[in-house]
Amino acid sequence: MRILVSWLREHVEASDSPEDLARTMSVRGFSVEGIEPLGDSDAVLDFEVTANRPDCMSVLGMAREVATAYGLPLQLTGSPSPGSNTDSGADTGTATDAPIDIHIENPDLCPRYVGAVMDVRVEPSPAWLQTRLQAAGVRPLSNIVDVTNYVLLELGQPMHAFNLTTLAGGQIRVRTARPGETLRTLDGQTRTLTTDMLVIADAERATAVAGIMGGADSEVTPDTTTIVLESACFDALSVCRASKALGLKTEASMRFERGADPNLPLVAMTRAVALLESIGAGRLRGVAVDRYPVPVEARSLRLRRARLAGVLGAEIPDADVRRILDGLGFTIRDATDGWDLDIPTRRVDVTREVDIIEEVARHYGFDRLPVTFPPLAAAPKPLDARIIRTRHLRHVLTAAGFSEAVTFGFVAADAAAPFAAEDNIVRIANPLSENFAVLRPSALPGLLDGVAHNRRRESRDVRLFEIGARFTLADGERQAVACAWTGRANPAHVSSTGRDVDFFDIKAVVTRVCDTAGVAIDVTPQAVTWLAPGRSAVASVGDTLVATLGQLTRDVADAHGLPDDPVYVADIDLDALVRLSAGREIRIAPLPRYPGITRDLSVLLDDTLAAADVRRTIRAAAPSTLISVVEFDRYQGKGIAETNVSLSLRLTFRSSDRTLTDTETQTAMDQVMAALTAAHGAVQR
């Protein structure tokens, strides 16, 4: 928001230099992007106004903040214009001399519409008016259009002027667009409207997209002699949706979609009429017509002294509270424990007591608040279990050498296609671009882009993970953990050249994550379309799928610009993991007092048999004293049939209440061998 300092001083007589003025406002929450000097004492201040403060997107709005900061009176703009009925209330539609017929068909989308007919002479604006517009970055066009832009900048109320002779039936009808209706807007483009878009129409056709841009057919031209001035309030969400759908962003839409003040249109109309008459551009015909079916009342909130002191950690004097809130335009009344406030309708951001406390703190001065943290009267509430779980997962994965990534929840349709069927993908109705057309069915597309980004910057060994939501039509939103790993599994060392990551490394990561949740998984080979054949698997518990893991296919890797090195990925269903771990008990056992006994076992097995099946058979057959099963060697070659493999396992036994004997251990080994022979045809070597 570019504001001319001399214009600002018409509303508040602040004598500080532009630089001091900028510093004063910056400590009250307004970021000053730049100061452009104009002459000896004037300048343009470029404020960055946040989306929740549409009331400050005007000279008057910023002047109110300056007046409160300096404790100065605010000078409101303008006086009633000749011929208007502002003193007695605007016409409500019952007057027989109303110069224009205005009808609102959708009061929920347009709570107020003020229209006025003026006889005008279109010509260039006076130099002072053009200078102010140019300083604010607005190009002067004609006296009529320039005045509407001037009021927009001064009061924050968008306005528009229609050529009355082009309006069929001399009517203004605020309605939604008809099916297939089109409109050629002021930028020369013909736009197809949808039935949820609000338009300003005459008796026959649409003449403007409400709150966004007028139509070319009703444009004010040098030959125009009679206009209809519009000053209205439109629903923020309706304007925002239409603006995005049409790809049309204007100064008006930026204000309406943030929240307009329904009590400002008549004030702005009065100001615009007065300006046009004062510069000799036109004269009001009859009276301004004000359609306001359901007047919006100011909201009321209570500010408690105890709450104010508790949040800020300091007692703020009552006089300061009154001065600040009165300066900002709040109507304040005494209450038993504080104050009752009527919130101005322009302050769409003030909805809670804490919002009022923020206003007091901003203008009282954050630097005047104590630096010590106020004492807590009660213990803080425990953290949500989801936060604790996510923090734990981060620790586990970062300890495994992974770095956390945060990627967009929106991805391109092509990027999402490998990870979900087309009829299961959630599409965005109004995407910002084709790169954000669908909700991600997996966090892997964004994560793979992150891997490619690192590889392009000569980082060969990349390990990334992300904890976030994924979306499908079948399952809705689910929390997941995605991992991607490429490069070396362990770095080169003076004693080793290191090795590249393989399937078993990513499997170990998935197992570690599941172990953290206390869930024992079974990993079985399974074909997955986006994983390389023979190097893909799923982790499950019974019939519940927990994770999908393996090496990324070359096609998917190429689509993300990844080099030829294999990339191993995992997609873990965190919601399923949480459900499986619900109710589990954490048991703590003392350190063992008795020694363990280790036995090695080498057996010949079918080479297609999964090691997990072997371990499962061993644990089912062994007594409870078996505490560990580890594979330490696998051999195929000379002396072994082509369809067989020699697998060596190390079994460890220990009892918690005694030292095991060799006889007990050997009996257990015999049971294990018998079970392996019966279940898998194993032969002991």
Describe this structure in words.
- With 685 residues, this protein is α+β, with helices and mostly antiparallel strands.
- It is built from 19 helices and 32 strands.
- The protein has five domains: 2-70, Phenylalanyl-tRNA Synthetase, Chain B, domain 1 (2-Layer Sandwich); 101-291, Phenylalanyl-tRNA Synthetase, Chain B, domain 3; 301-368, Phenylalanyl-tRNA Synthetase, Chain B, domain 1, CATH 3.30.56.10; 386-581, BirA Bifunctional Protein, domain 2, CATH 3.30.930.10; 597-684, Alpha-Beta Plaits (2-Layer Sandwich).
- A seven-stranded mixed sheet has the order 18-21-22-28-27-26-25, sandwiched between helices.
- A hairpin with a 3-residue loop joins strand 21 (462-472) and strand 22.
- It is elongated.
- The relative contact order is 0.07.
